[in-house]
Amino acid sequence: MAATPALTLYGRAYCHLCEDMKVALEPLRRDFSFILHEVDVDADAALEARFGELVPVLMPGTPADLRADSSAHAAPLCHYFLDEAATRVWLAAHGAARTGR
């Protein structure tokens, strides 16, 4: 059985775009089985330096995956606004089960 795919949403408290992206992800959570990790970039100086004002950023993988690949090779799926089409394609390509809810 394949592992459930994971996405990580990097954001910060009191960020309306971050909240908007979380809300925009809800239809995908109804359609696909995946794990969503949420990380506050302000809690880690390295993340704050890496993402700055770019948040929210939706990255494929877990926070641990992204720490292991801190290079520029770890490309975001989207930032500021959810790219639903790209995220759906990524989820399907990485084995996210369709939930049909």
TrEMBL record:
Entry-linked SUPFAM superfamilies: Thioredoxin-like
In terms of InterPro entries, this protein maps to: Glutaredoxin-like, Thioredoxin-like_sf
- A Pfam family matched by this chain, by name? Glrx-like
Record's protein name: Glutaredoxin
